[in-house]
Structure formats: C-alpha cells, structure tokens
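Final report, Chapter 2: Outcomes

The project's central promise was a pipeline that accepts a single protein chain and returns its three-dimensional structure in a standardized token representation, suitable for archiving and comparison. That pipeline is now operational. To close this chapter, we reproduce one record exactly as it appears in the project archive, with the input sequence first and the structure output second.
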Amino acid sequence: MKQLIVHGDKRVLTSAQIAESFRTNAKAINKNFSRNIKQFIEGEHYFQLSGEALKKFKAEHPNDASLKFASSLNLWTEKGAWLHASFLKGERAKEAFNALVEGYYKMLEAPQTTIQGQAPLGISLENYQQLESRVEKLEEMLKQQVTLHSGEQVRLRNAVGERVHTLAKDKGARPALFRAIYSAIKERYSVGSYRDVKQHELQDALRFVANWGVEAS
C-alpha cells in the first residue's frame, strides 16, 4: 500500500507515487505539470513545498530516496491526480486514477460496526453515497477531457487522407487540401492539433471530415 500522506485535511500523493500508479515516471508527471501549468491551481490541485515546509516533510519521510535532492516538492490532491490522468492519454491512466480514488483518496476506513445485519461501514451511508457521486462526476469529467490515443489519431488521419484523395485527383492539389482540412478541424474543435481532439468527439470529427467540402462544392 502507498504510504499515507495528509496535507492539511486532504490526502495527497507525491509525483513519484502518482507515477507509480500510472505506470510511468515522475519526469512524465512533472512534464505534464510544466506543459499545462495554467490548468493546475495551487491549493486545489496541488500543494508546493519548499524551504522549511519541505525540510520538515523530508524529516517525516526519511526513507523516501526520491526526496533526497528535491529543492521543491508538489503534493497532488484527488483533483490534481485526475488532471494528470487526463493528460496521460489512454485507459491505463484512467483505470489507475479510479483505483486511486477507490483505494486512497476516498478515505474508507476499516469496518467497525454492523447495523441491523447490513455490511459494516467505516463511514456513514450518506457520506459513502456522496463519495460515490463525486467519483461518477470525476469519471465523466475525465471522459470529456481525454484526447485521442494513437490508434484514434491514425483513424482521423486516414479519414483526412481518404477525403483528400476523393476530392483531388490531381496530386499537386492535395497538399493544400490536407492543410485546409486540418485547419478546419483545429477551428471546429478549438485545438492546436488534430491530436488534441477529445475522444468523445472522434465520431463527430470523422463525419465532419467525410463531408468536408460538400457545401463548398
């Protein structure tokens, strides 16, 4: 089990611990943070420790080799872990995030009492239902944010290629069409690259590409 870390009243994880869960490395977690820093809110998604606060944290975790040379340290909340899962494309990150919520961030304690023959709960039924609702909302948020994985990117590229070849028999005209379709995709989905189209938008994107140029013709 992961070592329990509480900052304030919230359970948190280090970059190394999140990386372990997502089967990646701390460098990838830190790169996610650097690339998308504007989307992370300190105090909501993470807490950054430095100076005396970091020194105290290191003293409390003397066996953690990853902390030895750290000049600053980020501790990630449940929302922070969700953001990292959304940036680390694919089902593996999503499954790992769900496992973190279930086994770490939910704070379920060991069974203590049995009420009228029901299964024992370490928290009240009302609180448990609230936690379940929160997990469902986070899963839906994650679904809305995950971008195309490599296989889906290939599908979209192939669709663009097929459309270009349908519209232009003259090979010399094809490069301009490629640029035009990719530009239309970026404008339609407000993304910097076709790779950033969201997974839930893939079918719409495929239809859009298949019908691109119909009105113009």
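Archive annotation: The mean pLDDT is 79.
This record, like all others produced under the grant, will remain available to the consortium after the project formally closes.
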